[in-house]
Amino acid sequence: MDVEQKDKRGLLHKIIKWMILVIVAVSLVWGFRYITRPAPLAVVVKPVTRGRVEHTVANTRAGTVKACRRAKLSPSIGGQIARLPVHEGDRVKTGDLLLELWNQDLAAQILLAQREVMATRARARSACSRADVAAKNADRLSALLKSNVGTQERTENALAEAEALAAECNGARSEVLVREAQLAVAQATLERTRLTAPFDGVIGEINGERFEYVTPSPLGVPTPPVIDIIATGCYYVIAPIDEVDVAGIQVGMPARITMDAHGSRVFDGRVRRIADYVLDLEKQARTVDVEAAFTNPDDFTDLLAGYSADIEIILDVRPDVVRIPTEALMVDGQVYVYREGLEQINRRRIRTGLANWDFTEVIEGVSAGEQVVVNIDIPGLKDGASATILEETP
Question: Residue 114: which residues within 8 A CB-CB, separation 6 or more?
């Protein structure tokens, strides 16, 4: 009996010994794996939300704010600047005198032409008065001749004189028209020495001073305009859009306009024109000029022609859809979803809809409230990897 108990005790000791050895071995293996396990990935996550997603296109290079009306003026004839009543920055009204060349000789010619018109009119009145008297005298003699009073010769002479004086009257009136035309030519020549404002605006630049000479541009040799006038009541933006994106743009589409000069402020606009040709200034980046007009006239007070500007044209809109940050989407149409309870990330394929730089519409694959990884370029990112949140962005 004692021998049997001793054998049982020995077997129990062996079992306990082996169990201890197994536990120690398992602990060592687990400890080694724990010590040598990879550190959890530090991920930046953003939530899947519901909201607005737009399909937009934007310009490839900076656009420019332009005035709806802008004129670069120069006299059509050469001469010396005699009057320059405006300065850069002055606001002018339509018809205001901007510049006048020396034109005293032309003014004298106009005065001479006016006097010749007056003299010719006086001669015409005299000739026509004599023609009227001769016509009445001829009519009277003709009536007397019918009553057998007077002679045939005297009557014929009176009729001939009346006809001659009538022709002289018509000639004098024609000469008046010629003199008036000559006066108009002289006045038109005088007007060529003056520049007047074609519209209300502001003087942007003046290239010239009093007593300096200006000459018209020779053929093929452009010269700077003397006066640059800019209308301030209307502006638009012209910007180059990549030829690939232009096909979806139509006149009237809404657009957002931003400018470096106004920081984050966004101006509302609409597409007003799409160029009819492609600019191939850069062979590898061909573009089409698109113009966007400002829809709120109150914005004009904050604008200056020449500001750099960008336009973002809205092609389509989904007002309330599931969306993810576009930076979370991989090129193969997959995202990494962070599982908070497991501290683990899992790769998931999704089906997308509209997209822009900020958000991408998700038709299926994730739900609102889940979190997706946005720093998808970190090393070691793979399905099932353990992770901790480095930053959570609302």
Answer: 183
Q: Determine whether domain 52-66+233-392 maps to CATH 2.40.30.170.
A: yes
Helix (H, G, I), strand (E, B) or coil at 196: strand
Q: State the Cα–Cα distance between residues 60 and 236, nearest whole angstrom.
A: 18
**Tokens, residue 193:** 């020495």
3-state secondary structure of 271: strand
Using the predicted structure, report yes or no on whether residue 351 has a pLDDT greater than 60: yes
Q: DSSP letters of 41-95?
A: EEEEEEE-EEEEEEEEEE-SS-EEEEES-EEEE--SS-EEEEE----TT-EE-TT
Mean per-residue pLDDT, 79-97 = 94
Predicted pLDDT at 370: 93
The CATH class that applies to domain 69-103+193-232 reads mainly beta
This prediction's pTM: 0.67
- Say yes or no to pLDDT of 71 above 70: yes
Using CA of residue 199, residue 204, residue 205, residue 210, what is the dihedral sign?
Answer: positive
Whether residue 95 contacts residue 200, with contact meaning beta carbons closer than 8 Å, is answered with no
Between β-strands 254-259 and 308-325, what pairing exists: parallel, antiparallel or unpaired?
antiparallel
